[in-house]
Design a protein that fits this description.
By secondary structure, this protein is an all-alpha fold. The protein has a domain of 152 residues. 93% of the residues lie in helices and 0% in strands. It has five helices and no strands. The radius of gyration is 63 Å and the shape is rod-shaped. Belongs to the PspA/Vipp/IM30 family. Keywords: Coiled coil. InterPro entries: PspA_VIPP1. This is PspA/IM30 family protein.
Length: 260
């Protein structure tokens, strides 16, 4: 294979590939339908021209037959008048017209066949055009649907590979982290609040314990007072009296705080 053939084949292959990629089904269908309609118009004109020629041939054939009949009658008249030479000339003119009529008849038969074929092809083309119109609308809708689906798939693929989707995923992770920190803070806050209530409850227990101790100390002092002889007083240690006064003052402060 020569270099020229190889280059020529390569060029034709590239051109065909480029044309194939550039073809838009909707535009191609529209153009194909326009071409079919143009052919229909041309064929319709051809049928009209053939019919007109057929009618002219038929008219000429009728005229020839009519003139041939006239010359036939003239030949008979001349023969009746005894003019044999004139009758012969009339028959010769009649023969010429009859020969022309025979040729016209053959031509007319051929034209009749052509007109019938053209009419049939015209009807077939008209039917194909109607079918093509219906198919064009269907194929156009299918092409639009396929194109829309292709664009959708392309958009989905680009979205899955785009930085925008990655940003959404990063923000989703960040929100999850924020929610986790919020839940942890809530748990810590709940634990601190629980500790505060436990501290308050412990304070109430201490207060109740102190009250019980004071009650017991008061009961012991009364018993010792009753056991002493009349007119005798029990000596209270200075430190114990000071401690009891401090405890009472502390209890009074606690009560004030509770009443706030």
């Amino acid at each position: 294979m020569s270099l020229f053939d190889r280059v020529s084949r390569l060029v034709r292959a590239n051109v065909n590939d480029a044309v194939s990629k550039a073809e838009d089904p909707q535009k191609i269908l529209e153009q194909a339908l326009i071409d079919m309609q143009d052919n229909f118009i041309k064929m319709k004109e051809a049928v009209a021209s053939a019919i007109a020629q057929q009618r002219r041939s038929q008219k000429q054939l009728d005229n020839n037959n009519r003139e041939a009949k006239v010359w036939q009658e003239r030949a008979q008249l001349a023969l009746q008048k005894g003019d044999e030479d004139l009758a012969r000339q009339a028959l010769m003119r009649k023969k010429g017209l009859s020969d022309a009529a025979t040729a016209l008849q053959a031509q007319l038969d051929q034209q009749n066949g052509q007109v019938a074929s053209l009419k049939k092809n015209l009807m077939m083309l008209e039917s194909k055009i109607a079918e093509a119109k219906a198919k064009k609308d269907m194929l156009k809708a299918r092409a639009q649907a396929a194109k829309a689906n292709e664009q959708l798939q392309s958009s989905m693929n680009s979205m899955s590979n785009s930085s925008a989707m990655a940003a959404f995923e990063r923000m989703e992770d960040k929100v999850v982290q924020m929610e986790s920190r919020s839940e942890a803070a809530a748990e810590l806050a709940g634990a601190g609040l629980e500790a505060q209530f436990m501290e308050l409850e412990t304070g109430d227990v201490d207060y109740e314990l102190e009250a019980m101790k004071q009650q017991m100390l008061g009961g012991t002092a009364a018993t010792e007072t009753q056991s002493l002889p009349q007119g005798t007083t029990q000596a209270v240690p200075q430190d114990s009296t000071t401690a009891s006064a401090a405890d009472l003052e502390l209890e009074a402060l606690k009560k004030q705080i509770e009443n706030l």
